UniProtKB/TrEMBL annotation:
The keyword Transmembrane helix applies. This is PH domain-containing protein. Keywords: Membrane, Transmembrane, Transmembrane helix. The chain crosses the membrane at residues 20-39, 46-63, 95-116.
């Protein structure tokens, strides 16, 4: 199989790389704000409490889900490793396509999210495949996943 830029081969499937997004920047900004509050003001206790909570939130936000695309078994597996440890398995038979959403504040892009749409999954519970600030990066991931999906469909139709 060919090498991909944003997808890593792992066992019988592929793991999608995760990137820094808006929530990571917000968590890091809160840590900086709490450090400045501790150093530059007399609100030491407030700054320490804010620092502890912002570090915890940043740690939780930097634990990305593990998204595995398994074309041999026709599965998309999303494993959350944070506080809410759950594993969701989606059948590729019900796969309807990818959706790329960019959230903006005026002309400023806040983030770009790649969703997988399935026929039997509601619009609010669809899995996030990857996220980033860059729409181009998410489009490259979409193209790579569609290439893998086309090869899988071609291989299963010839068998």
């Amino acid at each position: 199989m060919e090498d991909f830029k944003h997808i890593k081969r792992e066992g019988s499937g592929y793991e999608v790389k995760q990137y820094i997004a808006f929530q990571h920047i917000i968590g890091a900004a809160w840590i900086c704000i709490s450090i400045l509050l501790i150093i530059n003001t007399s609100y030491l206790k407030t700054g320490i409490v804010l620092l502890i909570f912002s570090i915890l939130l940043t740690i939780v936000s930097f634990i990305p889900p593990k998204v595995s695309f398994d074309p041999e078994n026709q599965l998309l597996i999303v494993t959350h490793n944070g506080l809410n440890r759950k594993k969701f398995i989606y059948r590729l038979e019900d796969f309807a396509g990818f959706e790329l959403q960019t959230f903006r504040l005026g002309f400023i892009p806040l983030g770009c999210y790649l969703y997988a749409n399935f026929k039997n999954v509601s619009h609010f519970k669809r899995p996030v495949i990857s996220q980033s600030f860059s729409k181009r990066k998410m489009q490259e991931i979409t193209n790579e996943l569609e290439d893998i999906n086309k090869k899988t469909i071609k291989n299963t139709s010839t068998v």
